[in-house]
């Protein structure tokens, strides 16, 4: 402990009486003297702990008693005021020389009372101190883990603060905007900005343009669409070939054709009709007699037309269109399954001349 | 927070962009590209594609233009997008590059890789080595944190973002974020114990 320490501790003692000791945390001496730092920490900890103690609650009758005892003194103040008003209200020549003595005599009793009140105040101030000599040491011991944790937190913060700020490229925003230009929908406002001076100086080093990413997708999109159309056409061709095979069976002179026709008729009975009825009486199945009846479904053709419109195909909803294609492919498969699984009921007569089998096949979805 | 975000300049810009004001989008990019770049750098390390990731964030902003509805500050929304992109990038490309010495690679356009250059002219060589060791260790420790803890710590420590906003970024509760940051700091204390001892002494 040197003279500087003594000076600091004197200042600390003064600070303890006047203001929070935390203000001394930045004192230059603390930065170099561990002992004084420890003393200051201890005082700070004690301050914090003491500040957290609950406020003592005074008995409610105390205030009333004090006010009651102060009442005569307050009355005395009023008397004094009135006396002074009377004395000074008139001419100075009318002031009586014995006024001071009279006033002092009248003030004697209240002065005595005031003295007693002061004694009471002194008694009240002598509330026994709760501090024990070992209190500070105990408190410091209890606070040690907390203080240690706080120091560790501060040290960790200091370490984290050592990581330098990332160096930002100076032209990041213009290059980002330039790279995003292809993604943004051009509008008159955008065109005006793009034609302005701020965009005239194109940065030399550009980001990986988003157009490169989207371009691959735009190239791949028609290919995917073409593949989907090919799959659809193949499905339609397969469906048409199946129907033609059935029609050929109908035209066969032997029993094989009749068997196929019967299967077709039974399919027609099992399929629900567009009007919701699937009664065999209302919809008698007729055998297929003409290849014209094997025309693909009109909706299927409409889907083909739609798919051939490239502006729709290149739309971002391509995956949705592709889902539609899969459904039609599934349609062909479902027809085949129906044909395979239909029972051969020879009792059902006739053919479906007006309502071809495939025309009544419900569409998925 | 709900009372604050409506006054957020970013929200106003985004709404203006939604109404067709393309210049508002320019302002959004100019205002937030830097913080996003810093966020990616801190979260992923000095990986070469940070600028592309920043670009991806704004591509998503463009695509969400029509359906944008302000429910938070724009920075919160952008950080949420950035977090998703960064996590996807981590899962796709593996662990983050935490070392200062890690090669940052080359950009797609062939330009030179960007390295973070620190001005060391005013320090002694030994101080520089020590500082680099500490910085490397701190970055490595941060990089080893789980993704949620890492992002929560970065936003809390370096962006000084309130827990409530971090909770919106990470789609979690404020209490969970508080716990997350606490666990992240515990992990860092454990990893950085030798350096912390030096710091304490």
Provide the descriptors you would attach to this structure in a database record.
heterodimer; A: 365 residues; mainly alpha; 15 helices; elongated; disordered C terminus; B: mainly alpha
Describe this structure in words.
The complex is a heterodimer of chains A (365) and B (201). Helix content of chain A is 68%, strand content 0%. Chain A has 15 helices and no strands. Chain A has helices spanning 3-18, 28-32, 34-52, 60-89, 99-125, 135-162, 172-180, 188-195, 197-200, 210-251, 255-270, 298-308, 310-313, 318-341, 357-360. The longest helix of chain A is centred in the middle third of the chain and has 42 residues, at 210-251. The radius of gyration of chain A is 52 Å and the shape is elongated. With 201 residues, chain B is mainly α. In chain B, helix 3 (22-44) crosses helix 5 (74-93). The longest helix of chain B is centred in the first third of the chain and has 23 residues, at 22-44. Chain B starts with a helix and ends with a helix. The model of chain B is unreliable at 98-124 (pLDDT under 50). Classes of the chains: A mainly alpha (365), B mainly alpha (201). The interface between A and B is large, with 35 and 45 residues.
What's the gyration radius of chain A in Å? 52 Å
How widely separated are the two ends of chain A?
92 Å
Question: Quick one: which chains have the greatest interface?
Answer: A-B, 35 and 45 residues
How many helical elements of chain B?
Answer: 10
pLDDT average of chain B, as an integer?
A: 80
Shape descriptor of chain B reads elongated
**Dominant shape of chain A:** elongated
Gyration radius of chain B, rounded: 19 Å
Q: Which class best fits the helix and strand makeup of chain A?
A: mainly alpha
Write down the oligomeric state.
Answer: heterodimer
Main sheet record of chain B: none
Order of helices and strands of chain B: HHHHHHHHHH
Beta strand % of chain A? under 5%
Report the structural category of chain B.
mainly alpha
- Could you describe the largest sheet of chain A, including whether it forms a barrel? none
Number of strands of chain B: 0
Number of strands of chain A: 0
Pattern of helices and strands of chain A: HHHHHHHHHHHHHHH
């Amino acid at each position: 402990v040197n003279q500087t320490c003594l000076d600091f501790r004197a200042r600390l003692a003064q600070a303890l009486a006047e203001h929070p000791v935390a203000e001394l945390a930045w004192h230059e001496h603390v930065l170099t003297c561990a002992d004084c730092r420890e003393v200051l920490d201890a005082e700070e900890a004690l301050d914090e702990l003491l500040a957290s103690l609950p406020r003592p609650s005074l008995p409610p009758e105390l205030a009333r008693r004090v006010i009651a005892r102060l009442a005569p003194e307050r009355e005395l103040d009023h008397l004094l005021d009135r006396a002074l008003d009377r004395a000074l209200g008139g001419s100075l020549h009318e002031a009586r020389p014995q006024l001071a003595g009279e006033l002092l005599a009248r003030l004697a009793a209240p002065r005595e009372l005031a003295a007693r009140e002061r004694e009471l105040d002194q008694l009240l101030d002598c509330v026994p101190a709760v501090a024990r000599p070992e209190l500070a040491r105990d408190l410091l011991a209890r606070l040690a883990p907390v203080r240690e944790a706080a120091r560790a937190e501060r040290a960790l913060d200091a370490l984290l603060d050592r990581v330098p700020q990332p160096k930002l490229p100076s032209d990041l925003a213009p290059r980002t905007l330039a790279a995003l230009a292809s993604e943004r929908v051009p509008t008159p406002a955008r065109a005006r900005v793009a034609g302005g001076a701020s965009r005239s100086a194109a940065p030399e080093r550009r980001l990986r343009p988003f157009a490169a990413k989207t371009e691959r997708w735009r190239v791949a999109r028609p290919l995917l669409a073409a593949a989907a159309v090919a799959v659809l056409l193949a499905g339609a061709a397969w469906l048409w070939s199946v129907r033609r095979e059935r029609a050929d069976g109908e035209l066969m002179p032997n029993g094989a054709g009749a068997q196929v026709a019967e299967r077709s008729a039974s399919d027609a009975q099992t399929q629900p009709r567009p009007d919701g009825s699937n009664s065999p009486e209302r919809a008698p199945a007729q055998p297929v007699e003409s290849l014209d009846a094997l025309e693909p479904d009109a909706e299927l053709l409409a889907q083909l037309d739609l798919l051939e419109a490239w502006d729709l195909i290149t739309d971002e909803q391509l995956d949705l269109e592709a889902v539609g294609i899969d459904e039609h492919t599934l349609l062909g498969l479902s027809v085949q399954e129906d044909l395979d699984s239909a029972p051969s009921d020879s009792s059902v007569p006739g053919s479906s001349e007006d309502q071809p089998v495939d025309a009544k096949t419900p569409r998925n979805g | 927070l709900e009372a604050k975000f409506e006054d957020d300049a970013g929200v106003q810009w985004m709404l203006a962009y939604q109404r067709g004001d393309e210049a508002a989008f320019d302002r959004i990019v100019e205002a937030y590209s830097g913080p996003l770049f810093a966020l990616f750098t801190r979260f992923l390390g000095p990986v070469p594609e940070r600028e592309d990731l920043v670009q991806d964030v704004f591509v998503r902003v463009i695509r969400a233009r029509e359906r944008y509805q302000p429910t938070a500050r724009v920075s919160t929304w952008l950080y949420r997008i950035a977090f998703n992109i960064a996590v996807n990038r981590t899962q796709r490309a593996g662990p983050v590059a935490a070392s200062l010495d890690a090669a940052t690679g080359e950009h797609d356009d062939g330009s030179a890789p960007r390295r973070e250059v620190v001005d060391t002219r005013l320090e002694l060589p030994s101080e520089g080595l020590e500082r680099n060791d500490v910085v490397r260790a701190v970055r490595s420790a941060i990089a080893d944190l789980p993704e949620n803890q890492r992002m929560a710590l970065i936003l809390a420590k370096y962006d000084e973002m309130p827990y409530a906003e971090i909770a919106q970024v990470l789609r979690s509760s404020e209490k969970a974020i508080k716990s997350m940051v606490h666990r992240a700091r515990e992990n860092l204390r454990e990893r950085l114990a030798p350096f912390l001892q030096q710091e304490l002494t």
